[in-house]
Design goal:
By secondary structure, the chain is of the alpha+beta class. It contains 30 helices and 21 strands.
């Protein structure tokens, strides 16, 4: 075995992992609290990069963490880091800075080391957060009730009624079960003095609870011995308390139907919406899934309307109800606010809590705490000045260079908004410009003291030149902001999640923000008591709870599954047709005019080739080049690339129903297909195209196998299967009809091509050897009930899926079933009956002198037309519900 060329490997000999980490870890920057060593230093860094002389060793928790690494110690960290990165990528954990339907999703950034919080620190944080939750609930009760705080001047009306997060529509509306706040997040920073300070708070739709879970699972698996040895508190009990409390506070009690309301798959944090809904065992819904009837909220499902008693919302308040809030919102539910005011649905958090997020409010909370309880806040906030008050503005202006300038009304369209700015990063001229803006529009600006964030250790698996990448790496400090969560566990009662989401600033940023390229870290809270090993599983499971817990198939999910099936099948069909066409254009049958005419017709019908491109019978190479060039056309509704992308988009809308393996297949199929053409730098050679199509075909085979064998056969899966069968029956019926119309089926090359398009070449030659007659062809491709590519089998399977679905609305589905043709019952003698060439019409004389199967062609055309009409009727019945009588909101 070769000795690693690494100072890290040499240094570890005879040294404990903790001792080595202490010696090699870069200390935190001056004036920043060092989480690794528990100190703040004032002297500058050693110019040679080494730790300053006399620097303290690691704190007890970090010493224990590193000593739990095992005999390989720090040398094993590169392997763990690579494994963690691969796990995040394979799990499909993403965070999109800006939603982009056409671009790749950004992988979630997770540091290898956790942020460790000691018990004494956590007790201070926990007590302070609970006190603040009680205070914020009291503020909300007053603002949406008697408004004494405004009357007494304890809160400026401009900060409340002038804030877009304040909803006049909710004034006077009593909260369901007496509580408005059910989930809140607090961003904390540790100052140079080692104390924790509140920087901001999130109360409208706090994000991070799903990512927090993924972080915990990933990091605890990397360091299981340290996780157990340091007595880290578990998280499941808090999540269970949240969901149990939401049920108990709702009108239906323990049997309540709780759903998570998401803006949809284009939201930057959609991954965690789906992840959290799956973890909590609640339904993931979009606004279009819900409807309001008689001031009650219902979920549109395949089995009709089901009542919804509670919503855990991840949708910003202005988009909740287009009838009363933003009329341009397509994300909300018309009539939702009226249902909330009537007390018929519990929403967490209650709409209207958004104004509490204003940075300016932090400066008023100490006085409000003394007003309500006479207590001093246990967890202080950073000194904050709202410049809407002249005295505060005059006090803040000289401090701009040592402060952070924040918008008072974040995201406001009327007041104007901007990103927070560090005064120390601005030039003198820029600071003067900011001072001018503040003087002109003081109420829109809030100034907050700058706090040097504490810095935690992070692992950087760098490999300097001349060293082995497996045996090198550095422990470097990064600024960190801690987000902690409080969740309700009873009426006006909360508990703090014993963990959190640590946000790590990038190396060149002074702000810890995910949207500015930052990362995240797991948060380990140590306990000196018992570790809570609770799970989300109920202590005793009854038959009724199991029945109630069956997955609901919403109309939206059903529609997306239906189109996932159709696009999957459509992609397979276009890949097979494109391969067959390119191989025929370069094979021994390239001079067969009937074959070229048939392939040209099918390529145009499926949009593989534009209609204005000369047919292969006229300009074979032009047609070929056009087909290859169009394979990745993103604006071509029939290109292979377009269909692959459409498949991914349909799958992304039902991602919570797909396994990780299936989701990865879908993403890789699209990414690798486009990558192959990108790598060739625009070289559209047929050989490269065939290789890309072959690789895509293999992905599609795996994808369809996963759909067949790895999905629960509920109504959603049946609609996915129905979508595939509709697409297959329509495509194959058209392909066979056109092969008879063009006479290609009577040509040897065309005969073989048709069998290949039906993916039945091996079966045909096994059963019929070298026969090339029409009866044998029709027996296998139309009548054979054992051939999954025959028209008869597809129609029979489609009929069976519809019958299985008939339990929802049997009378309607009986009518649908009657419209479905059954090629498996078509008499063979009638199908092979042909019009002799001499009896052809004037129009037919332009074609080769081959028999014309007019009646059979008409049957196929009717089959294709009827199956697509069936698709429209399914959509009207299950997705748009336009076939049902509807009641208006409040009827």
């Amino acid at each position: 075995m070769e000795t690693p060329n690494s100072s890290l490997f040499d240094a570890q000999a005879g040294e404990s992992p903790a001792g080595l980490a202490s010696a090699l870890a870069t200390p935190a920057a001056p004036e920043h609290y060092d989480e690794l060593r528990g100190v703040t230093r004032s002297q500058p860094d050693n110019p040679h990069g080494a730790a300053p002389a006399g620097l303290p060793g690691l704190t007890g928790p970090w010493r224990g963490f590193f000593n739990h690494l095992g005999h390989q110690g720090l040398i094993d960290l590169n392997r763990r880091s690579a494994q963690l990165e691969r796990q995040i990528r394979d799990n499909g954990v993403t965070y999109n800075v800006y939603a982009d339907t056409s671009g790749p999703q950004r992988p979630w950034s997770l540091e290898l080391f956790p942020l460790i919080i000691q018990p004494n620190d956590w007790r201070q944080i926990e007590a302070g957060v609970l006190q603040r939750m009680q205070l914020l609930e009291q503020v909300l009760a007053d603002v949406y009730g008697p408004q004494q705080l405004l009357a007494k001047g304890l809160l400026p009306p401009a900060l409340v009624q002038g804030h877009p997060g304040y909803l006049r529509e909710m004034h006077g509306a009593p909260p369901a079960a007496g509580s408005r706040l059910h989930v809140a997040a607090f961003d904390l920073a540790r100052g140079p003095d080692g104390h924790w300070w509140v920087v901001s708070q999130s109360t409208e739709a706090p994000s991070g609870l799903g990512y927090l879970l993924e972080n915990r699972i990933a990091i605890s698996r990397q360091f299981p011995q340290a996780f157990q040895g340091l007595h880290i508190q578990r998280l499941a009990a808090t999540y269970r308390a949240l969901i149990d409390n939401l049920k108990q506070l709702s009108s239906a009690g323990a049997d309540a139907h709780i759903a998570l309301l998401t803006p949809g798959p284009f939201n930057e944090t959609y991954f965690e919406h789906a992840y959290l809904a799956r973890y909590l065992g609640i339904t993931l819904v979009e606004g279009s899934d819900l409807t309001v009837r008689d001031q009650h909220v219902y979920l549109r499902t395949l089995r009709g309307l089901e009542p919804v008693h509670g919503l855990l919302k991840r949708l910003d308040d202005p988009f909740l109800d287009p009838l009363e809030l933003r009329p341009d919102s397509r994300l909300g539910v018309p009539g939702l606010l009226q249902a909330i005011r009537a007390g018929n649905v519990l929403v967490a958090n209650a709409p209207g809590a958004g104004f509490l997020e204003s940075a300016a409010l932090l400066g008023f909370l100490p006085a409000l705490s003394r007003h309500f309880t006479g207590e001093k806040l246990l967890l202080p906030a950073m000194p904050t000045w709202w410049c809407g008050e002249r005295a505060a503005m005059q006090d803040a202006l000289p401090r701009l260079q040592q402060s952070v300038i924040k918008p008072t009304y974040v995201g406001s369209r009327s007041h104007g908004s901007f990103h927070a700015v560090l005064g120390r990063s601005q030039s003198r001229r820029q600071l003067d410009e900011w001072a001018g803006r503040i003087m002109r529009q003081g109420d829109a600006h809030t100034v907050q003291s700058y706090l040097p964030l504490s810095q935690m250790p992070t692992w950087r698996p760098d490999a300097p030149e001349g060293t082995s990448p497996a045996d090198t790496g550095r422990i470097v400090p990064r600024s960190v902001l801690l987000r902690v969560y409080a969740v309700s566990d009873g009426p006006n009662s909360w508990r703090v999640l014993p963990g959190g989401l640590a946000r790590i600033a990038s190396a060149d940023a002074g702000v810890a923000s995910m949207q500015r390229g930052g990362g995240s870290a797991d948060v380990w809270v140590m306990t000196d008591g018992e570790v809570d090993h609770s799970t989300l599983l109920p202590a005793r499971a009854s038959r009724s709870s199991l029945v109630h817990g069956k997955r609901v198939v919403t109309s939206r999910a059903a529609e997306n599954l239906f189109w996932l099936g159709r696009y999957t099948e459509r992609t397979e069909n276009t890949i097979r047709l494109a391969r067959l066409t390119l191989e025929s254009l370069n094979g021994e049958d390239q001079s067969s005019q009937p074959l070229l005419a048939w392939l040209s017709d099918m390529a145009v019908r499926t949009n593989l080739v534009l209609s204005d491109v000369p047919a292969a019978t006229q300009a074979r190479r032009v047609f070929e080049r056009s087909l290859v060039a169009n394979l990745t056309a993103e604006d071509g509704a029939g290109s292979v690339g377009y269909n692959l992308r459409a498949t991914r988009l349909a799958a992304s809308s039902v991602r919570e129903r797909l396994s990780q393996e299936q989701w990865k297949l879908i993403g890789r199929a699209e990414a690798e297909f486009f990558q192959r053409f990108t790598e060739n730098h625009g070289d559209y050679a047929t050989t490269h195209a065939l290789q890309a199509l072959e690789a895509a075909s293999m992905y599609m085979a795996a994808m369809t196998g996963a759909q067949t064998d790895r999905m629960t056969r509920d109504d959603g899966w049946r609609l996915l299967s129905i979508g595939r069968h509709i697409e297959r029956l329509g495509f194959l019926s058209t392909a066979m009809a056109k092969s008879f119309e063009t006479g290609a089926v009577h040509d040897e090359g065309g005969f073989e091509a048709l069998v290949a398009l039906f993916d039945s070449t091996i079966t045909f030659h096994a059963q019929y050897q070298q026969r090339r007659d029409i009866p044998a062809l029709l027996d296998l491709l139309v009548l054979d009930r054992d051939n999954p590519r025959s028209l008869g089998w597809v129609a029979q399977s489609l009929s069976g899926r519809l019958a299985k679905l008939a339990g929802t609305t049997p009378e309607a589905l009986d009518a649908l079933g009657l419209t479905l043709p059954d090629p498996g019952t078509w008499p063979l003698a009638e199908m092979v009956q042909a019009v002799p060439p001499g009896n052809a019409t004037a129009t037919d004389k332009q074609r080769p002198a081959t028999p014309r199967h007019t009646a059979f062609i008409d049957q196929l055309a009717q089959c294709s037309s009827m199956v697509y009409r069936l698709s429209e009727r399914i959509g009207a019945l299950y997705f748009t519900h336009s076939g049902e009588d509807k009641l208006s909101v409040g009827a």
